[in-house]
Design brief:
Shape of chain B: globular
Order of helices and strands of chain B: HHHHHHHHHHHH
Strand content of chain B: under 5%
Structural class of chain B: mainly alpha
Distance between the termini of chain A: 54 Å
Strand content of chain A: under 5%
Helix content of chain B: 55-70%
Number of strands of chain B: 0
Shape of chain A: elongated
Oligomer: heterodimer
Number of domains of chain A: 1
Largest interface: A-B, 7 and 8 residues
């Protein structure tokens, strides 16, 4: 059982780290603000979600898991809204303002 | 080389690079954004050094609240037409560079030639932790062993706010300031997403803030971090236009602003009268007294920081 949980941790955290890397490359390489936002939202949702999933077997009980999941939800909330705010500004004032 | 060491070296290199970027950035807005990132990374470094209290303070105040203040300043600077800045003369620049280099070398020398082991009061503070009944050594130091410093810090915060207020035009003194502050802001101008966030987040943030205040007795946390989180929630509501900042002349507002230092001072004088010295807590009541002071301080800090970051500006006069 423990071995299985460890494998889950390694796989999930690695996958999360991969999404963070992909998102960062997207942030650096994509041509304009909207596509860069698109790359970043994947990092928030999937990357952090996978890392939280991977860490939860080691979070020390259900309270720890609850804390990790709340962090993930809060980051998702703020990330999604900040992305909306930035995208709204871009739509108002053009991509190069 | 272990993974942890590699991480630490990488983090330190990143911090130095970002610090250099903050200084060399041409644009004020860029510099502020990079400064906020710097603060967040610094918080990670503090966590890595097991100084979670400092990490919380750095993340909330050093990065968060200072970031809001600086962003506001950068935005206001942008609207003012940049006056033709005279370039300082060459001798002045060389002199400034020399002075900075001397300070840097002196600091490096001080750090490199620290006695080993470094002088520390940590064992003494840990040994006397029983006296207050609190388990968090940082709170012990802040609220008991060096209570005088903490009290005076709060007074300084109040003085800063008075300094900002003294720049407020007379006209704004008594009115609702939000209209003047943010320009014509009608409900239709509101950003729906920001309003949504300002409705959803404050309940969570207030719970987190109160938790950090109460946890500060035995775990990392305390009045300053809690007050900053509450201030941030208030600022969010103000920015979304869901509430107006209170008129500065309100009596309750001023009572809240002095509550922290006042309670601290009263308890301190009580120590002079009942106990042995100024700010000496009676041993039996040390913990409840400290908690009362911390609660009052949290309110004061939240109000002061909120008003500092959301202060009506001088430029609103035009």
């Amino acid at each position: 059982m423990n071995r299985a949980l460890d494998i889950l941790t390694v796989v999930a955290v690695s996958a999360g780290a991969f999404f963070f890397m992909a998102g960062t490359i997207g942030l650096l390489r994509f041509p304009d603000t909207l596509t860069r936002l698109h790359a970043l939202t994947k990092v928030d949702n999937l990357g952090l979600g996978l890392i939280v999933l991977g860490l939860s077997p080691h979070a020390g009980g259900s309270l720890g898991v609850l804390k990790l999941v709340s962090v993930w939800l809060l980051v998702q909330l703020s990330g999604a809204i900040v992305a909306q705010l930035i995208a709204g500004k871009v739509r108002q004032s053009g991509p190069h303002a | 080389m272990t993974v942890a060491l590699a991480f630490e070296i990488g983090l330190a290199a990143l911090l130095l690079a970002i610090a250099a970027w903050t200084i060399t950035a041409r644009d004020a807005f860029t510099a502020v954004v990079v400064f906020v990132i710097y603060g967040l990374l610094l918080a990670i470094a503090w966590v890595d050094l097991s100084a979670v209290d400092i990490a919380l303070t750095e993340a909330t105040i050093g990065s968060g609240l200072t970031g809001v203040l600086l962003l506001g300043a950068a935005a206001r600077l942008r609207t003012i037409a940049a006056p033709a800045v005279e370039r300082p003369s060459k001798s002045l620049r060389v002199g400034a560079a020399l002075l900075s280099a001397i300070v840097a070398v002196a600091l490096a020398g001080v750090v490199l030639f620290l006695p080993d082991p470094a002088p520390t009061l940590a064992p003494a503070a840990a040994a006397n932790a029983v006296a207050t009944g609190l388990d968090n050594p940082i709170t012990n130091v802040l609220m008991a062993f060096r209570a005088m410093d903490t009290m005076l810090e709060k007074v300084v915060l109040l003085l800063a706010l008075i300094g900002v207020w003294s720049l407020v035009p007379d006209r704004l003194w008594d009115e609702r300031v939000s209209v003047e502050r943010n320009g014509p802001r009608r409900p239709t101008d509101r950003d729906d997403m920001l309003v949504f966030l300002a409705r959803l987040l404050p309940p969570v943030g207030i719970v987190v803030g109160l938790y950090i205040l109460l946890a500060g007795a035995n775990n990392p946390g305390g009045a300053f971090q809690a007050g900053t989180i509450l201030a941030a929630m208030w600022l969010l509501v103000l920015m979304a236009g869901l509430a107006d900042p209170p008129p500065l002349s309100r009596r309750w507002l001023r009572l809240v602003l002095v509550a922290g230092p006042a309670v601290f001072l009263i308890v301190g004088l009580g120590g002079l009268w009942l106990g042995s010295a100024f700010l000496a807590y009676p041993v039996a009541f040390a913990k409840p007294l400290i908690l009362v002071i911390e609660c009052a301080m949290t309110l004061t800090i939240a109000a002061t920081l909120g008003l500092l970051a959301g202060a009506p500006e001088r430029g609103a006069e035009r």
